[in-house]
Amino acid sequence: MRRLILRLTTLCAALAVAGATYAQIATNAVGRSPWSVTDEIGTLNMMTDQSRLDVLRQISSGKVYDLSVDLFVGMPTCCADAFGDPAYQIWKTHEPTRKEGGALVSHSSDTILMNTHTGTHIDSLNHFGLHGKIWNEVSASEALGDRGWTKSGADKIPPIVARGVLVDVAAFKGVQHLPASYAITPADLEGALARQGSELRPGDVVLIRTGLMTVWPDKSQYQFFNQSGLSLAAAQWLVEVQQVMLLGADNFGLESFPSTDAENFAPVHTYLLAEKGVPFMEVMWLEDLAKDQVYEFLFIGAPLKLRGATGSPMRPLAIPIAAKSRS
């Protein structure tokens, strides 16, 4: 009976928080940081030297999982198709002589052209805003220069070392990948966690598997305009109830598309980045973790320090940790 009362109390508290969140969403206003008036990293403030040390002490294997995709010409890109941005390109700018013999030193180099949201990447808090403002009530008039934002850019994101949890929604649903435009619900997340025997904790890095990487890099199936992903309610549950620090997914935009909100084509983006200060990662390779049923791990990742950029490529890694028993 005591356990039942505790569960009911927890449920009521969660519903109350969710209700408050929906009321806040309706205002469509950027959030003010609870950490500092100069804050530019949002929920990444939850990470401390002690939290990093705690998860490092839990490593149970030397196996390293690479959570990134290759970058190559012709790869699927969200921003080229959706917004007309340049697709990924690479070309040689120097190459060694092709003649027999040649010089003692063979010098080669190359140049790349790409949107900062190409391949596996992280979205900075200045990527999406509301009414001309970004996270922490910073306005474009005060922080937008000729070369981009001077606040909350990719260069401000610290190296991330934290406990990570894979939430395999596709496996919970018993499908190779979720249907087109499917919006993941809080019940889906809870069901997947229960199936895995996993639990979330404040400050976690949570990675959502839709299964879309099973069709990568087929552009006819891995698309931006009809992808499955998080619903707004699921994002709220993760942030408000579970208090996660960082999110990621194996799809183009974390959330499901197209949006059902006539006034906001990316409501999860604006909610997480502008209102709550939660950065997130996209186009993540989660298939190896899922195959080996590695649901809890040490997450390590860092973006390039692109000054003022709205996002940056990254190569996140996962190392299995010992799962703690439920308290």
CATH architecture of the largest domain: 3-Layer(bba) Sandwich
CATH superfamily of the largest domain: Putative cyclase
- Helix and strand succession? HHEHEEEEEHEEEHEHEEHEHEHEEE
Biggest pleated sheet: 9 strands, mixed
Shape: globular
**Count of alpha and pi helical runs:** 9
Q: What structural category characterises the helix and strand content? A: alpha/beta
Overall number of domains: 2
Beta percentage is 15-25%
CATH topology title of the largest domain: Glucose Oxidase, domain 1
Proportion in helices: 25-40%
N/C terminus separation: 17 Å
Chain-averaged pLDDT: 91
Over all CA atoms, what is the radius of gyration? Answer: 21 Å
Low-confidence stretches: 1-26
Query: Can you list the strand order of the major beta sheet?
Result: 1-17-15-9-11-13-14-4-16
CATH top level class name of the largest domain: Alpha Beta
By DSSP, the count of extended strands is 17
